[in-house]
Amino acid sequence: MSLPRLPIELYDNIASHLCPSDLAALCRTHSLFCPIVQRILYQHLVLSSAHHNLSVVVTLSNNPSIARVVRTLSITVHSSAHVLRPFYSALRAALSTMSELTTLDLSLDTNVNPSWVLTPRTHHVTYPHLKTFTSSFPFDAHVTDFLERTPALERLELDTAPVSGAAPLPFLSHSAIPRLVHFMGSYQAIKVIVPGRPLESIHIHDGDLSEDEVACLAQSTGHIAVLGAITSALLVPFLKSLARHLPYLAYLRLMAPFHVSLKPSDDTFYEQVATTLTSMPQLLDFELSGMHWGSSCQANEAGRRIWQAAPISSVPDHHLEDSLDLTSDFAFVY
Fold first, then answer.
1. What are the F-box domain coordinates in residue numbering (predicted)?
2. Which residue, 9, 10, 166, 179, has fewest beta-carbon neighbours within 10 Å?
3. What secondary structure does DSSP assign to 107-150, as a single string?
């Protein structure tokens, strides 16, 4: 049987076991192997200024047929690399042809914020298979324009920097990202991202989450089970608001340094927190400013967990055995 008549699957199987140098040699032996080798070499790319392989972006921008085989792309550009604008223009052109992407991770120089690379220059591009998008970009109009073209997106992680000044929040249509279940980003962005979408996991590491924003989280069509946030609100009323609006919370991590720094001299504060936690029927783990709160393994008469009236950090070692085993640090899924 002649070489061209062999099943393409056979070539794929052979090539998948070769190292990059052998793949390059195979590609030079016969033009038949070029698309096979390109598909394997460019399917999953990890590029960075540290690895000195950013020139691959230029290759992709000049060869749309190669760019279309990319499935996962990760690019890291450190601020010390001094990457010039032509690189970002090449990245923009390359992304415009990567319609088969499933995962995109862009960690670019935050001093430049080249979020405009997400916007195609000449034609409308969609990413029907993209499920994960992680970037160092803030929540701006370029990002929302990109999100309008990612109907299968499930995980979104953006820079947590708040929208600057009095600028209005960028517009995102209600039909965009209908499958989103995980979000990490600015507390301001949740007002646009959360309502009407099936969020289950939310991490907000900037700003000051208020009870008004908690009500906004309740507009998710999914059951929010994981929440990480910073708040300066009165803790007990804030927890009551969470219990009222987010009844399916299973993992909760709050940074509330104001309350922790008070170091209450009596147990009233801790007892109030423990009582409020009991009103969250699904809650399994709670962390407040780095302190874990344990709960008993047995449920009370109302079918709810019994939370100890002090964080685990404050409990003597010989009492830890009576607390919930939290040896696996807070079970957040990123």
1. 1-45
2. 166
3. E--TTT--GGGGS-SSS----TT--EEEES--S-HHHHHHHTT-
